[in-house]
């Protein structure tokens, strides 16, 4: 039978940052939370994710005796800043579909166990962060993320991967606790734009921007559009502001070439107009929580993010979306975004559409015109060449 040391050495050799061991006992504290907060987490079961079932390792492997938790550190190389502003970092190099990175290494690890007579399962519904804390790999922030004890600069930029096995190993001392410094005035809670963190370690998942970007229903409500900011898929804000992450984020690191190579496909101007073929070939293999039936949500998220940049360069793309997209949720958001950017060109575009639209799109066009920042309009009109008068003389 393999020793813990041999298993750890193999995992590190395969590129995992850290390894911990815990028992296969059920995660009862997680069971209690899920039971107590059915209202917040009930949607997961309807969506095919049985979180309660994942709290008992023996549901995945009846002979389970231990859980080996591998820790993947995903901010070892630098991502293009343009991507970091729109996508959660954990999704930028996600290979669960392409299986050419971490997933491949996980497969090799399991193959190594198998050759030594150890059966394993990696259920997607296991409580990953709690498993890691129970295996002594880190503790929690009040934002609910796991903060590594020994690697990744003690930061939260790690993904725990619980591997349930039928071999028995001595568990490591658990570290299930909140490890935030006293002096931090709950920066993560204050910074969450949608008040999804209701209090220390109390997340309301349906208010989280990550959930809203990939599972939000219908046209994003007006009161969430500005708070959701530039995020298109996921959100890192409560980790970005955390002082426990500052040191690791300040490190100089080499660029992640894999992610840089695909960055062009994730430009907002591509996303707002991508068709099914582009989506399936370029986007879905990397970010797959939405299917091709949800293309409208990608378009809508890109339009909302464009509006929140308040950058004139997106006006042509938004005007095209308002004119050509066949989904009224996208056209409605494009109207909102044009209004948010403001200026003469955006106003003219909206005025033109006011006459030909109806329903929700017309409502959004009218609202965008009514709420367009007046100062921005005047500033544009005062620019030389815009209205035929040169005020610089
Ligand atoms: S990921 Fe974003 S929206 Fe979700 S809790 Fe953190 S800051 Fe709030
Ligand atoms: S921001 Fe402060 S309270 Fe929130 S996780 Fe970081 S250290 Fe803890």
Write up this protein.
- With 393 residues, this protein is α+β, with helices and mostly antiparallel strands.
- It has helices at residues 4-13, 28-36, 38-46, 57-60, 81-84, 89-92, 102-115, 128-134, 187-191, 209-215, 222-225, 237-240, 246-249, 257-262, 268-271, 276-283, 295-309, 315-324, 328-341, 344-356, 359-371, 374-381, and strands spanning 18-23, 66-73, 120-121, 138-140, 146-148, 158-165, 197-199, 202-203.
- A hairpin with a 2-residue loop joins strand 7 (197-199) and strand 8 (202-203).
- Helix 18 runs parallel beside helix 20 and helix 19 packs antiparallel against helix 20.
- Bound molecules: iron/sulfur cluster (SF4) (2 copies).
- The site of one iron/sulfur cluster has 12 residues, from helix 10 and helix 12.
The radius of gyration is: 24 Å
Give, in spatial order, the strands making up the sheet with the most strands. Answer: 1-2-6-3
Q: Order of helices and strands, N to C?
A: HEHHHEHHHEHEEEHEEHHHHHHHHHHHHH
List the ligand species: iron/sulfur cluster
Mean pLDDT across the residues is 93
In DSSP terms (H or I, runs of 4 or more residues), the helix count works out at 22
Q: Helical proportion?
A: 40-55%
Q: Roughly how many Å apart are the termini? A: 86 Å
């Amino acid at each position: 039978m393999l020793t813990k040391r041999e298993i750890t050495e193999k995992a590190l050799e395969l590129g995992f940052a850290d390894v911990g061991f815990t028992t296969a006992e059920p995660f009862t504290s997680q069971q209690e939370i899920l039971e107590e907060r059915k209202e917040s987490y009930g949607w997961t079961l309807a969506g095919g994710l049985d979180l309660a079932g994942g709290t008992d390792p023996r549901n995945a492997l009846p002979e389970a005796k231990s859980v080996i938790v591998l820790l993947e550190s995903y901010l070892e190389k630098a991502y293009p800043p343009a991507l970091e502003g729109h996508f959660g970092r954990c999704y930028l190099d996600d290979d669960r579909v392409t299986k050419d990175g971490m997933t491949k290494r996980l497969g090799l690890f399991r193959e190594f166990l198998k050759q030594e007579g150890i059966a394993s399962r990696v259920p997607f519904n296991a409580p990953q962060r709690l498993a890691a804390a129970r295996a002594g790999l880190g503790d929690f922030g009040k934002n609910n993320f796991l903060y590594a004890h020994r690697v990744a600069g003690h930061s939260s930029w790690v993904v725990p991967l619980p591997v349930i096995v039928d071999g028995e190993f001595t568990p490591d001392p658990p570290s299930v606790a909140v490890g935030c410094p006293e002096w931090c005035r709950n920066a993560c809670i204050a910074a969450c734009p949608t008040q999804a963190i209701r209090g220390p370690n109390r997340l309301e998942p349906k208010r989280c921007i990550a959930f809203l970007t990939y599972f939000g229903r219908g046209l994003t409500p007006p009161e969430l559009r500005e708070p959701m900011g530039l995020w298109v898929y996921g959100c890192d804000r409560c980790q970005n502001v955390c002082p426990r992450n500052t040191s690791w984020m300040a490190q100089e690191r080499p660029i992640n070439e894999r992610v840089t190579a695909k960055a062009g496909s994730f430009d907002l101007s591509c996303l707002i107009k991508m068709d099914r073929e582009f989506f399936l070939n370029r986007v879905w293999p990397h970010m797959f929580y939405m299917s091709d039936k949800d293309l409208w949500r990608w378009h809508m998220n890109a339009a909302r993010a464009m509006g929140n940049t308040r950058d004139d360069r997106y006006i042509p793309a938004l005007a095209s979306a308002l004119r050509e997209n066949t989904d009224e949720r996208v056209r409605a958001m494009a109207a909102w975004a044009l209004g948010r950017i403001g200026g003469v060109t955006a106003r003219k575009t909206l005025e033109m559409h006011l006459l030909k639209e109806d329903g929700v799109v017309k409502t959004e066009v009218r609202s965008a015109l009514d709420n367009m920042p007046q100062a921005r309009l005047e500033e544009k009109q005062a620019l030389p060449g815009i209205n035929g008068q040169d005020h610089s003389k």
